[in-house]
Amino acid sequence: MTQPVPIRRDALLRTALELAVRGVPVLPLRAGKVPFGNCPACTANACGGRPNMKTAGPCQCPGICHGWAAATTEPHVINSPTWARAWRDAAAVAYHPGGAGLTVVDLDSAEAIAWARTSLPATRIVRTTRGEHWLYQGVMQSANAVRPGVDIKSSMQYARWLGSGTGTVTVLPDVVRALIVKEPSTVQRAAVTVPALAGGGQCPHRTPDYLDRGIAMAVQRITEAREAVHATVYRTFLAVLSTHGRCGCLTEAHTARLFTAAQAKGESARHCTDAWTNALTRLGL
Fold first, then answer.
1. Which residues make Cβ contacts (< 8 Å) with residue 67, sequence separation at least 6?
2. Which end of the chain, N or C, is less packed with Cβ atoms under 10 Å?
3. Dist. CA 285–CA 281, nearest whole Å
4. Rounded to an integer, what distance in angstroms lies between the CA atom of residue 23 and that of residue 100?
């Protein structure tokens, strides 16, 4: 009598190890494309919710915790006794696209696929149960339902491994990045306050170009953030205000550029306003 369960487990483990060697962070999935739950020590995020394999934090458990953040390229972890128990019950292999430097455009319907074929550059395509995964080289903020039947899976997200697919992976295009960008509204811009120089006075900066370069560098810093986006946005706002916040040279156009860059990385208008306000408070402005 055949033993399909061990054979399937060995095949999943072999696939995971092959991907890890190629630099693709992997993790096992349970039936229903669901990651394994936190270990008892981390139930209800008692450890602080920090992944033990991707970022520093209080959690030092050896279990497959915290969903996407458990993904690893370490063979000794994938082959560990704890993971062996998970592979026994696993139904599929998943991977962290952002950790592999990839973005997956998940197309879940025929209509979504038709849209992609007329709107997106050709790239590697992987067939899925309901549609297709289009893989691009580059990392961006993940987001669900960016349009009907279309999800973005990249940073802080996992995708099921369904094979290498066909075609050549191309660079992540701006048209995909733009799918998560929300135009700042009048209300969002009105929430921004620009401090004026105490007692009046002239801007001490030598030329307006000094300010423009500073804003451009701040936008670039936010745009290039690959993780810890919240913290990066706050630190960038703090840096801008510490340099330009007291001279009265900042305008709503400048702050709108910063807010737009932050929202392009997935920050909400409220998060932007809170970060700006907290930076003002920190500097006593």
1. 35, 158
2. N
3. 6
4. 6
For 79, residues 6+ apart whose C-beta sits below 8 A from its C-beta are: 13, 17
Q: What are phi and psi of 205, to 5 degrees?
A: -70, 145
Amino acid at 117: R
Non-local (6+) Cβ contacts of 27 within 8 A are 35, 36, 64, 68, 70, 71, 72, 93, 94, 95, 96, 158
d(C-alpha 201, C-alpha 193), whole Å: 19
* The token pair that represents 164 in the structure block: 């290498």
For residue range 190-239, list pLDDT tens digits in order.
344 544 444 444 555 556 667 777 888 888 888 887 767 878 888 888 88
What's the confidence (pLDDT) of residue 166?
96
Residues of the chain with pLDDT > 70, as a percent, come to: 80
Q: Once rounded to an integer, what is the mean pLDDT over residues 104-132?
A: 95
In the chain, DSSP finds a helix count (H) and a strand count (E) of 10, 10
For residue 229, give the 3-state DSSP assignment.
helix
Looking at residue 93, its amino acid is V
Arithmetic mean of pLDDT over the chain: 81
The residue whose two tokens read 């993790």 is: 27
pTM of structure = 0.62
- DSSP state string for 10-73: HHHHHHHHHHHHTT--EEEEETTTEEPPPPGGGGGGTT-S--TTTS-SS----S--SGGGG-B-
Tokens of 166: 């066909």
C-alpha closest to that of 130 among 166, 164, 160: 160
Q: Do 263 and 182 form a contact (C-beta atoms < 8 A)? A: yes
Tell me how far apart the alpha carbons of residues 275 and 160 are, in angstroms, rounded to a whole number.
35
Partners of 95 in the β-ladder = 26, 159
CA 173 to chain centre: 16
Task: Give the whole-angstrom CA distance, residue 98 versus residue 43.
Answer: 25
